[in-house]
Amino acid sequence: MEQPFIGSEALGCGALSWHQLRTQYRAVFPNIYLSNGIEPSLQQRITAAWLWSDREGTIAGAAAAALHGAKWIADDIVVDLVHSNPRSPRGVLTRRDVLFYGETQAIDGCEVTTPARTAFDIGRRGARRLAVARLDALARATDFKVDDVLGVAKCHPGSRGLRQLEAVLELVDAGAESPQESYLRLLLVEGGLPRPQTQIAVLGTDGFPIAYLDMGWLDRMVAVEYDGDQHRTDRRQYVKDIRRIEMLERMGWIIVRVVAEDRPADILRRVRAALAASSVRSLL
Question: What does pTM read for this prediction?
Answer without folding.
Answer: 0.90
